[in-house]
Amino acid sequence: MLGSIKAMLTCYAKHGKLDEARKVFDEMEEERDVVCWNVMIDGYTQHGLPNVALLLFRKMLREEKRKNSKVRPNEVTVLAVLSSCGQLGALESGRWVHSYIKNNGIQVNVQVATALIDMYCKCGGLEDEKKVFDGITGKDVVAWNSIIMGYAIHGFYEEAFWLFDEMRGMGILMVD
């Protein structure tokens, strides 16, 4: 039964029927796990309601503190939350999430690092963006594109071209 409720929640959220998804989510209070929270937070993020996503993330953190809670943010959670921070230009919230990642054992793999770069780029935190980029092991084309875009968007064209040349020199090719 719980599996079909989660499937319904996911279907509603992915198709932008967030009121329906939220009703299902609110009714399953005791059964909610991190997957349910992630579905809702990502649903709000993907459908243009980043403020609501951040509010729900804060609620999730309060839930995490409850005794015997099954809820603990993970990599999927922070990917959606960082996207919301970027959409809002909420640099301080994004820095707080970055700190949360570091302090709570969430692995900073290429996907999380790229989400951090994207958020810092959109929020104007170019120094932080570069620090994250420099710390990535095994940079992929997406990470390179994110840092190059960040510099270009903020008018640092020479740095963007230099990074592009560095990427090409390392043999990382653009994907069509």
TrEMBL record:
Q: Which residues form a coiled coil?
A: none
The signal sequence is none
Cross-referenced Pfam families: PPR, PPR_2
Keyword annotations for this protein, in alphabetical order, are:
Repeat
The PPR repeat boundaries are: 1-31, 33-67, 140-174
Q: Please name the InterPro entries in this protein's record.
A: PPR_At4g14850-like_plant, PPR_rpt, TPR-like_helical_dom_sf
PANTHER family hit by this protein: PENTATRICOPEPTIDE REPEAT-CONTAINING PROTEIN, PENTATRICOPEPTIDE REPEAT-CONTAINING PROTEIN ELI1, CHLOROPLASTIC
Protein name from the UniProt record = Pentatricopeptide repeat-containing protein
Cite the source lineage: Eukaryota, Viridiplantae, Streptophyta, Embryophyta, Tracheophyta
